[in-house]
């Protein structure tokens, strides 16, 4: 009776243990994997947002430079060739009609003196416009000014005014204006896919938007400043570029925003990505995986009940289980991390090859390979990155060897290569080929690209008085020579 109870307890422990070793790791691994996946997606979204912001900044800079050159060219004609000015304007507008909405000249009194859209018949007072006042108040300060968006009285559209003062004989004589429609920027930005809830904006340091593009409607007035909040975009004491995660002042939603601030023009290129867009596939995958994990959990629960009843009927002795486990362990010949032969299997293979060499003659060479400064890789990048480096090195080596060659891991970052029917010179050539392949290969990791080098020692078998252990020892001596000579090299000679 007592023995029967013990068997029941053992069967119950087996069922509970099964659930413990399956459910907890499964859910734990799922949670960790999802967190890592989300972190990767967040990192990718950050890179995408910043790359787009850089592209838009370059676009804005090129537009500003071009318009400034155009203004200065037109200003020369206003001052030196007033008779041909209108023809020059007409020619430039024909050439850049999509970018330039209007060219105008404001007199020193603030009245519109010329417009490329219509003939000026009455008095249009523009003295209150910011882009006139900034020059009239600083008459000899010849700088490009970029205004807030204004609604043109003549053009009837929202546009950004690029202006410079007219200075004749050292005196302020008015302002020349090139109007660029805000639609020029927003139409360009709208061609870029930033998701259904994403947004691209060009904003001034004065917090007034110059252009905004989004798939969804955003209620933003071009003549009003954005809310006065402590954000790094507008703080010139903060870095001129960066990422901001938080509530967007455009629509009040949580967002990831990349910005690039141009101090000279006073403009900020901004790209806002919404987590609801770039995490949409993640959330879908998360729901599927959690649902699948729940189904698997129910299946495992049912299976644990089956284990209980099976164990109750067929419980084996601990000795038999240990014996079976020992036999299974003896059959493990592959290194689980790298896929190379395990040390025991590899040395067994070397003994076999060496025995055949002694019996049949021929050629046999052996290479010892060691990854240079591998400990630094682990110390700097961490063991997961180190494991990835080991796998990549093994993959490169295996791809450069014949099917008849054997590649095994002897421990840590040290590996061995058996080259059957290969003399010392050929083995040295193989070692050099592997060294060059590894040196030139860039290993891509989550911490960035990594390059490593290897040192290799080459030895070949002797037909008299030799053994597998002596062959390994000579290769180890050659490897020591390669390391002492500076690493990242092949050695096949002894050194004193």
From TrEMBL:
Compartments where found: Cell inner membrane
Keyword Coiled coil part of the UniProt annotation: no
Keyword Transit peptide: no
Pfam hit, one: GGDEF
Reactions it catalyzes: 2 GTP = 3',3'-c-di-GMP + 2 diphosphate
GO CC terms in record: plasma membrane
Transmembrane intervals: 12-34, 288-312
PANTHER family noted in UniProt: DIGUANYLATE CYCLASE DGCM-RELATED, REGULATORY COMPONENTS OF SENSORY TRANSDUCTION SYSTEM
Identification of the protein by name: diguanylate cyclase
